[in-house]
Write a structure and sequence with these properties.
single chain; binds zinc ion
Length: about 500
């Protein structure tokens, strides 16, 4: 197996310590949902209720008093306590911890989206000299994958090699997924090329990875090759293929796969397949076709499908159809209000846009704020738009201002149109200049040596302005900058992006 080997951390202890020092990691503010393996304690509803009541530190004493029972009942209950640090103390003090309890705990964290916590626990497990098994490794890799934490992921992979862990299809798929999501598609490919490709999940991981990187022809040839190797595609394979076509604007190819899925493979399209097709048509501006397909669906279209249509209506300024889509979305979320408001702004219907924002405020709908992060020297650093909470804020803003200045000299013009709010031109510019991915990049530049590749992850879709700015910055600094947004990868190099500006 070809693996990029390098000394990631001077010692494992240094690495382990670095996770604890990770700056700006938001602690879970909400109650941590229950883990999957609660069967061992659900027999005792009282205990469960007590633990459910122990969500906040003032109840730590209560949590402590159930400590004995906790130990007796063992694993699974960990995340039920809610307050992570409290739960962790109880868990670490328990004498019944074995690989099974660790696995259920780490797996539960991954399942519930507590990726950083999962990595932290994996680290604790290794420190406690408990031998991780294939399940533990699969969970740890999945956590790194979702965080885009390449260095951590490589460390886990190296540990697997050191412990001579034999790859099975779960681990192979997890590694392919991790390297793809961490921006290293070439490593993902080399693992795929050298592994036993005997399960559809390995192919799905590879096709999905290629799709995220916009490598359409590679994804399509992987699809053909899987048939040569006698592996039948499943519904997930088609979701990846259709999404690729959608993100690249390949309408005819999308139609073709949607068709052969049913004819050649007897796979009935599910909600997700219809959603991908609506997105494909919508992005390509075929709004009527998208709407017609929604009406033909044999099942109730879900909110994702209507949102895909709404988003296309905003792009192509079709507010009549946009209003229909909004009418179908029950429980509108902040993103829907913003899309709708921006749609009205794009056709200069400022009053309607204002009404939407008024309703949104009245209902107390909070905006889902953009957040970006970068993994540097073993820690993950998060930034919100306009963030000034970092201890190195002054330096970060200085670097950012300098980068904006240099980009302007190279012809970058702030894409004020991408802020549709009815505010002054100057305010629009301020607003755009401090988007989270720009701040994250500035920090990345500040903290890394010239020429280092930078991978930024973002929770939302990247905006047009950040996109064009990143392209110019990649040229000015002669660096490869990769942004993994909610949809896909953008790899900026020498002034252009791998998405070809279609995303
Ligand atoms: Zn932006
Ligand atoms: Zn791009």
């Amino acid at each position: 197996m070809k693996v990029v080997r390098r000394n990631l951390f001077s010692s494992k202890t240094a690495f382990l310590g670095s996770l604890n020092n990770a700056a700006f990691i938001p602690q879970p503010s909400s109650i941590i949902p229950p883990a999957r393996n609660l069967h061992s304690v659900t027999d005792d509803p009282t205990l469960l209720r007590i633990l459910e009541g122990c969500k906040l530190p003032p109840n730590f004493r209560t949590a402590n008093s159930v400590h004995g029972k906790f130990i007796k009942h063992g694993y699974g209950i960990f995340v039920k306590v809610g307050e992570f640090d409290v739960a962790k103390k109880i868990f670490l003090a328990s004498s019944t911890r074995d690989v099974v309890t660790w696995n259920s705990t780490i797996g539960g964290c991954v399942k519930d989206g507590y990726f950083l916590e999962a990595i932290g626990l994996f680290k604790d497990m290794v420190k406690a000299s408990i031998e991780p098994d294939k399940f533990t490794f699969a969970s740890a890799i999945a956590a790194c994958s979702r965080l885009g934490a390449l260095n951590h992921g490589q460390w886990v992979h190296e540990l697997m090699i050191e412990k001579k862990v034999q790859l099975n299809y779960i681990l192979s798929s997890a590694l392919i997924d991790m390297y793809s999501r961490c921006g290293r598609i070439e490593i993902a490919k080399s693992i795929f090329d050298t592994t036993l490709r005997n399960d559809v999940s390995i192919w799905n991981a590879m096709i999905k990875g290629l799709a995220m990187h916009g490598l359409v022809s590679d994804a399509v040839s992987a699809f053909s090759n899987m048939q040569i190797e006698k592996i039948s595609p499943d519904p997930l394979t088609f979701i990846s293929i259709l999404t690729t076509c959608s993100h690249c604007g390949f309408v005819d190819q999308g139609r073709y796969y949607f068709d052969i899925m049913q004819k050649n493979f007897s796979i009935q399209p599910q909600l997700e397949h219809y959603g991908a097709m609506v997105d494909l048509f919508g992005r390509a501006g075929l709004l009527e076709e998208a709407y017609a397909l929604i009406q033909e669906m044999p099942m109730e279209p879900d909110v994702v499908t209507w949102r895909a249509l709404l988003s296309a209506c905003k792009t192509y300024k079709n507010h009549e159809l946009g209003e229909i889509a909004v009418g179908e979305i029950k429980n509108l979320e902040s993103g829907d209000y913003i899309l709708l408001s921006n749609m009205y702004c794009s056709v200069n219907k400022w009053d309607d846009a204002e009404t939407v924002r008024h309703v949104m405020n009245k209902k107390g709908v909070r905006k889902c704020r953009g957040r970006s992060w970068v993994e540097l020297h073993g820690s993950i650093h998060y930034f919100k738009a306009g963030d000034r909470s970092h201890p190195e804020t002054e330096a970060i803003y200085r670097v950012l201002e300098a980068l904006i200045h240099r980009a302007r000299m190279e012809g970058y013009v702030c894409a004020r149109d991408s802020v549709f709010m009815d505010i002054s031109e100057e305010e629009k510019e301020e607003n755009l200049n401090y988007h989270s991915e720009k701040l994250t990049l500035a920090y990345g530049i500040l903290k890394s040596s010239p020429g280092t590749k930078i991978l930024i992850s973002k929770n939302l879709r990247t905006c047009t302005d950040c996109h064009s700015w990143m392209k110019i910055v990649s040229k000015v600094l002669n660096r490869i900058i990769t942004v993994r947004d909610r949809m896909r990868f953008h790899s900026f190099e020498k002034g252009s992006c791998t998405c070809g500006d279609y995303w």
